Amino acid sequence: MTDKPLDFLWFIPSSGDGSYLGTDQLSRPADPDYFREIATAADRLGYSGVLIPTGVACEESFILAADLAAHTERLKFLVAIRPGTASPAYYARLASTLDRVSRGRLLLNIVVGGSAQELAGDGVFLGHDERYDHADEFFQVFNSLMETGHANLDGKYIRALDARLGLPPVQQPRPPLYFGGSSDAGIDFAAGITEKYLTWGEPPAQVAEKIAHVRKAAAQRGHDVSFGIRLHFIVRETDDEAWEAADRLISHLSDDTIAAAQEVQRAQSDSVGQARMQALHNGRRDRLEVSPNLWAGVGLVRSGAGTALVGSPATVAERLREYQALGIDTVIASGYPHLEESYRVAELLFPELGIHAPVPPLRQSFGQKQVFGGGGHGGNVKAAAAS
């Protein structure tokens, strides 16, 4: 356990957003202007960065990050490298340029697996474990280019002859590598290469087991790794209000939609992490609180991260401290809809976690305490002096 506040990132919903799962009611289409609103809010509220997802339904993460970097000041961008979809030399040029134009605000998310159907569309036909063997060779070249400007490899999957990178990244020796994968092959890969291992929001006992596995594998490689968790958040002023909001989020979700979503996830993904997410609820509405305040309702239809912490600020902070005691130092968070929930999480939860927003440069008074008075012509109300 550490007294250092958690590193807290938010999420850019680059395939679209909404207020209810499983319906088009109050949904929001993918819109770059909306993504900028979320990013500038996160930047102002004190989030350290944002995760930009990857996939055929999402905007391309490198290009979107470059746009958002131009509209923010401090925010970092966790973007995806998908080995097999482009050469390591090309990805090195993309990554170095984005780190340079953002002035060192790039984080790299290694995505090896996912939907077998999507991988086939990208021209990747390797089996689950073999994809990690390929990724190991990929990052031998990528890391060498980013750190030294040149690379050579005559491997089983990757052949790079006198590869060169002309312009180095801002961060030295390179932007940090993040990775999430629950299979033995994925953990073995992560143990030797990544700076940050990510887990989806499983119950603390399962997260503890996974962290121990990764730590042991990393120690055998002589490598240090830190840990993060990917979670949704439903935070309200009271526990009851938070649970009401969780119920409301799936209030338009039909059993047929749940069944269809679960079948797609089973049929298209060979991800061990995805199977672990599904096993938490097995598509059932009556078993969604899988651990105290850990709710699996999002995973009824959403692939990937499917759990949310639900409760008052004090309750959710207590649950996060339990994860922090296991070794988690980073949270990648989201909530529906993402713009409004970025404010709720920052305004309600951050004070409980000791996270402080950047100090605004504008003074709001000449020193008198003020009370919000509704925004009328007379401005705010000066608080009565204590007698």
From TrEMBL:
The keyword ATP-binding does not apply. Keywords: Flavoprotein, FMN, Monooxygenase, Oxidoreductase. It comes from the Bacteria. It is an enzyme of class 1 (oxidoreductase). GO terms for molecular function: alkanesulfonate monooxygenase activity. It holds the Pfam family Bac_luciferase. Catalyzes the desulfonation of aliphatic sulfonates. This is Alkanesulfonate monooxygenase. It comes from Paenirhodobacter populi. The gene is ssuD.
